[in-house]
User: Fold this.
Amino acid sequence: MPRYAYVNGRYVAHGEAAVHIEDRGFQFADGVYEVVTVHAGKLVDEEGHLRRLDRSLRELQMPWPMSERALRLVMRQLIAKNGIGDGIVYLQITRGQAPRDFKYPKGVSPTLVMTTRFMNLDPVEQLNHGVKVITIPDIRWKRRDIKSVALLPQAMGKQKAAEAGAFEAWQVDDEGFITEGCSSNAWIVTDEGVLVTRHASNDILNGITRQSLIRLAESAGIPFEERAFSVAEAHAAREAFLSSATTYVTPITQIDEHKVGEGVPGALAGKLREAYLSYARSEGAS
Amino acid sequence: MPRYAYVNGRYVAHGEAAVHIEDRGFQFADGVYEVVTVHAGKLVDEEGHLRRLDRSLRELQMPWPMSERALRLVMRQLIAKNGIGDGIVYLQITRGQAPRDFKYPKGVSPTLVMTTRFMNLDPVEQLNHGVKVITIPDIRWKRRDIKSVALLPQAMGKQKAAEAGAFEAWQVDDEGFITEGCSSNAWIVTDEGVLVTRHASNDILNGITRQSLIRLAESAGIPFEERAFSVAEAHAAREAFLSSATTYVTPITQIDEHKVGEGVPGALAGKLREAYLSYARSEGAS
Assistant:
């Protein structure tokens, strides 16, 4: 457990970091969050995360809790205080504390909490053997583009995955197309070698790692299509992988009861992971 | 502000009532709640609320935080400590505090918090003139039958209502049928005098006041249909009203830009409110 957390202007012992029971994050899921990877002490894709945070806040008519510059500073101070080399910063902003009433309260200061965690960013077992995913119905709300803390359906989905011995659950829309994982974006490589991931819309969260991977794939001249793909297409894919801030690119070797390709991590996934790691160490780091 | 809140086994000063920032209610909306009306110091429809609470917990594989008997006692003690005559008890149960990870943690105790509030259960202005509702798209998840704290879409809807000078927003499904309000059930009376409210399913929360009203309407021999109704049908209705634990039966005199009936509270709504009040004072009180 890290030593310090940040709560509304103070660095406090992690075990004592608390919010009021009438915080709107607790009573209404009225808040947003970001998870930023720390690699060798540096933030990865910080710009992308802050731009998305700003968008989530605007969509919910929620103000920044402090200037962007101050927020960047707090992230760095917390990383330093907790001595994080490889790990993550988790930051959450809620509309603040107010007597319980659905509509947005007036004159309330937003709540800002921040934690860090050490994390092994190079999980050898997962990378050597790949992970399993299952498919489940997507039961979420219609504004999945907002990175809100209303994460109950995702928690239910991840629990289903865990009970099935899987790493992640890919959610499937009413038309049979995969939207995304519960905490990661979904990718396949078709038999023709085309890289495919679902287009950004209200149906998915536009992952920051996802966006960087698209840029890297295009730079590398990899054939790429941004479109919905079906469960059947995923089952028949040559490769599959997932992406997120904390897992980078993680190969998938089983989807439901179907072995992906030869049942070993795919070459393109490996290539993209290397490209992302290289990027995360250089121009993506700050 | 009431003096005391209840948090995990202790009665604490309301201003100091807090949960950890890694409570799953705060980070994942992984919790459920109930609001029980207190009328003249007695709980209204307590049985119904506890049965629904039990169902919500089971659907989320969440244990009770204490025995049902103990929970009933805590509600009464908090009401007494805070001297509540007319008002509400708000109780929230979350999966508890654990290092952030989507899937359900093991060996964690649930969090139980409880607050009370004084409330005027007889708001003369609303009852004499009726309230306005607007219609908005229903963007919520597909398990609206679970009374979870993942209430962000409802908060957004209530905010839209407030900005439109309305009391409530009725949510409309993809087929143009009204599901329910953001914190209340929706009812109309057709031109033929038939009382209509949407049937219980995963599409709505099955209100406890709603269920009591159905029983009372049937006892009174009021023609009743439990079915979906469209926005057009609502606009053309003779009467409309909403129901919830705190508003009982509240007449609606305007839906969007349409005056309901003659633009005054309806007779049937008034009759049902009286019947519910009478019930809440006698066999519905405990």
